[in-house]
Amino acid sequence: MKSIKAKLMTSVLIGLFSILIAALISVFILRSLAKDFDNVINQELDSREQVNKVLSNFKIQVQEWKNILIRGHDATQYKKYVSRFTEKETEIQNDLVSLQTKGYLPTKLRNQISELQAQHKELGKQYREGLVLFENAGFNTQAGDKAVKGIDRPVVAAL
Q1: C-alpha closest to that of 58 among 101, 94, 4
Q2: Torsion angle, alpha carbons of 22, 26, 29, 30, to 10
Q3: How far apart are CA 23 and CA 91, in angstroms?
Q4: Is 140 helix (H, G, I), strand (E, B) or coil?
Q5: Alpha carbon of 25 to those of 5, 12, 35: distances in Å?
Q6: What is the rounded CA–CA span in Å between residue 3 and residue 8?
């Protein structure tokens, strides 16, 4: 009888041990999945934060352009706001490059960021052309505004 009881107990213990092992493996797998999910969420939040930073800086850059138009007749103010405008332009370009290098972003999204970067560079050229027109018009606000009116809209829409 003892041998049947021993065999039964052994079978039950092996079964319980197997269940315990399976439960432990499941816990480790779930932990790993939760960690991976946290990483994905953090990457998503980081990317969104960086895009929001680019958008904010772009709006500041456009505001600096308006400051050039409004206060540009004064040489000191002109220099100050052109410098700020250029600084924001550089910061935006650097942030877009940083976003493109995020390996976890899908290729399609990285391509869109690349297109946005090219649009922003082109926009910078157009603003500089507008700056020349503004200067040549004797720092006339309307001439400077007319030269670049609405050119920022596609970039804002892309962001």
Answers
A1: 94
A2: -170
A3: 51
A4: coil
A5: 30, 20, 15
A6: 8
